[in-house]
Design brief:
Distance between the termini: 39 Å
CATH superfamily of the largest domain: Type I PLP-dependent aspartate aminotransferase-like (Major domain)
Shape: globular
Bound molecules: pyridoxal-5'-phosphate
Strand content: 5-15%
CATH architecture of the largest domain: 3-Layer(aba) Sandwich
Number of strands: 15
Number of helices: 16
Largest sheet: 7 strands, mixed
Radius of gyration: 22 Å
CATH topology of the largest domain: Aspartate Aminotransferase, domain 2
Structural class: alpha/beta
Helix content: 40-55%
CATH class of the largest domain: Alpha Beta
């Protein structure tokens, strides 16, 4: 007689992972420990909540749900429909948007759908250049966006290092783009959405805001929203917004059908319903006063961090930040971005080298670093902690011979031990 198998647990069951695959279980724990052991200053990362992680680890992962709530290509979708409908309503309410789509698998997928909805191959788009802070999906040659579309790029003003709006207008008039994209991955300042709207109206272009980096600050009402101005706003859900890894878009009602069709079936197959449910959870969390306080603290922390770093000889691109991130030019202290990333990394301070506008170094070396405060703020750090974080960064960055690495790492360990990212038991 064969034994009937035990009924499996319906949700996250770490013991099952340890039994089935100790090798991967060890990796999962090691990554948790890596997060807890260091200072995570990558501007595009955050620590998502146990509630979001629970939705992500649920049986909603099993369901095929091609289509949209009430209009699916598969049976049995009545339950997952609820999760997606709740999420869509939360997104519309939180952002004051007429339409929302929670299905894009990632920020890049959401952007691909926008191109699919509004452009045909060969059409002209105008976007921020990658070396000035844009994104690969904004027309870089190595991306679908640069291969299949005719991308023209604006950059930052040489003096202010902020977006050169005169150049945007001039290029828009000259090239008459189908779509103008604003947003990027290394823009420390607020974007003038009204100015972009005016330029788009003048040349008849779609206004596409890629809010991947800063949408969490918008959700938390800490900075102005692009939603009233833009035709479509795409974003990732895993950066400041603190949700699961994924993408989302909100738009004007007039573009709803075109965008939904571009997400599915043009660019994607079945939605990741566990991720859609987790996005709904994150949107609920982001609508709370606690999250709004968090968003404001993220900015205060970034400003405190920049003030300390610039006092130590690093130069802040644009002179500072209005957001969660800052770009520091290290030429004044004679260190490259790559050296800084390696030296801080050795001391468990995780940040990334980053090109600065008009960088004389190639991207793999870079003259700058990018730092962001979403993660450290989630773990409860404040301006006083930023003072210490800055001093640890500076000691590591200036430590050419590595003689300080162990001492800095020990101080990092002490600092984060009091405010761990995740519980270990
Ligand atoms: C992070 C980011 C994306 C891409 O997100 P993925 O989820 O990594 O695909 C797109 N645009 C901008 C501006 C980003 O910063």
């Amino acid at each position: 007689m064969t034994e009937s198998p035990a009924v499996p647990a319906w949700g996250p069951d770490f013991a099952a992972l340890e039994r089935t695959d100790p090798e991967i279980a060890r990796v999962v724990l090691a990554e948790r420990d890596r997060l807890n052991a260091g200072l995570q200053l990558i501007a595009s990362e955050n620590f998502t909540s146990p509630a979001v992680l629970a939705a992500l680890g649920s049986t909603l992962s099993n369901k095929y749900a091609e289509g949209y709530p009430g209009r699916r290509y598969y049976g049995g979708c009545e339950v997952v429909d609820e999760a997606e409908t709740i999420g869509i309503e939360r997104a519309k309410a939180l952002f004051g948007a007429e339409h929302a789509n929670l299905q894009p698998h990632s920020g890049a997928s959401a952007n691909q759908a926008v191109y699919g909805a509004f452009c045909a191959p060969g059409d002209t788009v105008l976007a921020m250049s990658l070396p000035h802070g844009g994104h690969l999906t904004h027309g870089a040659k190595v991306s679908f966006s640069g291969k299949w579309f005719d991308a023209v790029h604006y950059g930052v003003d040489a003096e202010t290092e902020d977006i050169d709006y005169d150049q945007v207008r001039d290029l828009a008039r000259e090239h008459r783009p189908k779509m103008i994209i604003c947003g990027g991955s290394a823009i420390p300042r607020l974007i003038d959405f009204a100015a972009f709207r005016e330029i788009c109206d003048e040349v008849g272009a779609i206004m596409f805001v890629d809010a991947a980096h800063f949408i969490g600050l918008v959700a938390g009402k800490a900075i102005p929203s692009p939603v009233p101005y833009a035709d479509v706003v795409t974003f990732t859900t895993h950066k400041v917004l603190r949700g699961p890894r994924g993408g989302m878009l909100v738009s004007k009602a007039e573009h709803a059908a075109a965008l939904d069709k571009a997400v599915f079936p043009m660019m994607q197959g079945g939605p990741l319903m566990h991720a859609v449910a987790a996005k709904a959870v994150a949107l609920k969390e982001a609508a709370t006063p606690e999250y709004q306080q968090y968003a404001r603290q993220v900015i205060s922390n970034a400003q405190a961090l920049v003030a300390e770093l610039t006092a130590e000889g690093m130069r802040a691109v644009t002179g500072g930040t209005d957001t969660h991130l800052a770009l520091l030019d290290l030429r004044g202290i004679g260190v490259t971005g790559a050296e800084a990333e390696a030296r801080t990394g050795a001391a468990r301070i995780v940040l990334n080298k980053n090109a600065i506008p008009n960088d004389p170094q190639p991207p793999r070396v870079a003259s700058g670093i990018r730092v962001g405060t979403p993660s450290v703020t989630t773990q409860g750090m404040d301006e006083a902690d930023m003072k210490q974080v800055a001093s640890l960064i500076v000691r590591a960055v200036k430590d050419a011979d590595g003689s300080q690495t162990a001492a800095v790492a020990a101080e990092v360990a002490e600092l984060v031990a009091g405010k761990p990212a995740y519980a270990t038991s």
